[in-house]
Specification:
This protein is 8% helix and 33% strand. Strands 1-3-4-5-6-2 form a six-stranded antiparallel β-sheet, with no helix packed on it. Mean pLDDT is 78; it is low at 1-65. The chain is built from two helices and 16 strands. By secondary structure, the chain is mainly beta. It starts with a strand and ends with a strand. The chain has one domain (2-41, 61-185).
């Protein structure tokens, strides 16, 4: 990875460290402690409230923020770190709604972004979100499989699928290989507590599903009664 001319790799690492990234703890991960499953393994369970909640959800577009389009791009992406995530059974994107939405367009990026050359294309990365240049703009994208970063974003979650650890943040799954973290296809059976903004709602035979970045999720009720999201089809 190459830093942008306005920043350097060490500063990026220091910036992440100074924000107190804590391995699977920290304030942004406190809500995960409400799950009483085995550590790091999130399974569907107690269905006491599931039928009523899942039936009421329908299309959640009312929770979406305004999207910045190519015709009306935003000036610079805003990361609302002042907003503490609050669980909502009606909003699959409750944890990540402070981040720029998928497919949004911006005129400029924070000066400390990282340049990543991968597959013959130049990508930009800043604090857990990937961007790709589009003419004179930048659009929020799902990162391509195989691209990697060297520091996980603040607020990531560690998830075990068939006893193998993955790292999850804002719809992206990472696999640690040496000192780097590679983007991988969502592993089927993984259960996450929230989806990125920009998901689509699909109703099939009366059942509600969510699609994002080519993957499909179904809502499940975990042991503490919360609604989480299981990968049922990978991209």
């Amino acid at each position: 990875m190459n830093r942008s001319p306005n920043g350097n790799r060490n500063n990026d690492i220091a910036r992440n460290n100074n924000r107190n990234r804590n391995d699977d703890r920290g304030n942004l991960n406190n809500n995960r402690n409400r799950n009483n499953n085995s550590p790091g393994i999130n399974r569907g369970g107690n269905n006491n409230r599931g039928n009523d909640d899942l039936g009421r959800r329908g299309n959640n577009n009312n929770y979406r923020r305004n999207m910045y389009t190519r015709e009306r791009p935003g000036y610079r992406p805003v990361y609302r770190y002042d907003r503490r995530p609050v669980y909502s059974h009606n909003n699959p994107g409750w944890r990540y709604n402070y981040l720029p939405m998928r497919n949004s367009y911006f005129s400029t990026l924070p000066s400390t972004y990282i340049n990543i050359n991968f597959g013959g294309f130049g990508y930009r990365y800043w604090d857990g979100v990937f961007y790709r240049p589009y003419n004179n703009l930048f659009t929020v994208i799902a990162p391509p499989i195989g691209i990697f970063i060297n520091v996980l974003p603040v607020g990531y979650s560690r998830i075990y699928v068939r006893d193998y650890p993955y790292y999850y943040y804002n719809g992206t799954f990472y696999d640690q290989r040496g000192n780097d973290y590679y983007v991988v296809s969502p592993p089927e059976g993984a259960i996450v507590e929230s989806l990125p903004e920009g998901y689509e709602t699909v109703v099939i035979d009366g059942e509600t599903y969510y699609t994002i970045d080519g993957a499909q999720y179904r809502p499940v009720v975990v042991e503490n009664g919360e609604i989480w999201y299981e990968v049922i089809k990978a991209n």
